[in-house]
Amino acid sequence: MPIVGRLAAAALAAMTWLTPAAGQPYPAKPIKIVVPFPAGGIADLYARLIGTRAAESWGQPIVVENRTGAGGNIGADAVAKSPPDGYTLVMGSFGTHAVNVSLFANMPYDPVRDFAPIALVLEAEGLLVVHPSVPAQSVLDLIAYGRAHPGRLTFASAGMGTASHLAGELFKTMARVDMTHVPYKGNVPALTDLLAGQTSLIFATMPTVLPHVKAGKLRAIATIGSVRSAAAPELPTVAEAIPGFEVNNWIGLLAPAGTPTDIVRKWNGEVNRIMQGADLKQRLLAEGARFAPNTPEQFGAFIKDEIAKWAPVVKASGARVD
User: Fold this and answer.
1) Which of 186, 236, 252, 293 could form a disulfide linkage to 38, CB 3.0–4.6 angstroms apart?
2) What separation, in Å, do the N-terminal and C-terminal C-alpha atoms of the chain show?
3) Which of these three, 220, 240, 260, is where a domain ends?
4) What is the reported pTM?
5) Pairing relation of β-strands 62-66 and 31-35?
6) Contact yes or no for 68/38 (Cβ under 8 A)
7) HSE-CB of 24 using CA atoms within 13 angstroms
């Protein structure tokens, strides 16, 4: 065989070795779940939990990659531009797939057009917590203190466009309090500085901050959903002091647009199975989080509703990232 022919044959053999055989059941090679936020946050924790259990079921490694920056846009965009073969997914969020499209002047992806929704993983109730040095025991106390000391209060967030950022901006607007936003690259560094007293307060999911509240390191002022939480029924809602205030965070699994329907449905079934496990039901209840079985179509409709819901709120808050 001529040398060119041998080279071509070798190249073809290498490609055949590297690429799963046509018709081979999915998954036939390792899968990557991109988390657009740092390790330790709710998106990271549940991506790893789902990845570990799905890997046990399917017999293929599932790797979680934290790809942070731009309020989650960098990681989400990387997945939007990945091959639609089911081997690169993203743990999207309230920020990446509902708020950022209204918050950022230049979006690198379309949260609806560029993704195939798989499943809404959970909705997480949130808390307004303050550092113990802040002399406030209630929402009204906090408002009074903020108005008496303009600019003194600082609110930490997990980054531009995250639920913690938007909740702070919404609170500023509705409570008419001058607060300074201090964005971080994820909940973990934001909480580290809050615990050290470098910032005044944060609006964060219960799983993220409740352990610090129970340890007496932070003071819970109120929950930020529409009704009191079963996980902390003694706490009032912010809405009891500021009618209409409501922010619920959520995370969900998505694939690049064009991913085969059978792969999307296989993942949807696996997420629903994992999240309905008896141990997780108890964990979610204790953490103030909720899961309801859902289809890819329901998750897709949910995302569209969330975008429409938050667009006017972002505009009214005046928050904008150029």
Assistant:
1) 186
2) 60
3) 240
4) 0.80
5) parallel
6) yes
7) 9
Dihedral, CA atoms, 25, 30, 36, 40, nearest 10 degrees?
Answer: 120
- Determine the pLDDT at residue 3: 44
CA-based R_g, the chain, Å: 22
Gap between the Cα atoms of 15 and 2, Å rounded: 20
Instruction: Give the Cα separation of 204 and 244 in Å (integer).
Output: 18
88-93 sheet: strands from edge to edge:
62-66, 31-35, 88-93, 249-256, 115-124, 289-290
Which residue shows structure tokens 């399917």?
Answer: 58
Instruction: Tabulate helix, strand, coil % of the chain (nearest 5).
Output: 45, 20, 35
Q: Which pLDDT score is estimated for 159? A: 81
Size of the chain in residues: 322
- Domain of 100? 29-124+249-317
Q: Tell me the three state secondary structure of residue 32.
A: strand
Q: What is the CATH number of the domain that holds 103?
A: 3.40.190.150
Parts of the chain with a pLDDT under 50: 1-21
SS3 87: coil
pLDDT of residue 83: 98
Which run of H or E residues covers position 213?
Answer: helix 206-214
Percent of the chain exceeding pLDDT 90 equals 69
222 and 133 co-located in one domain: yes
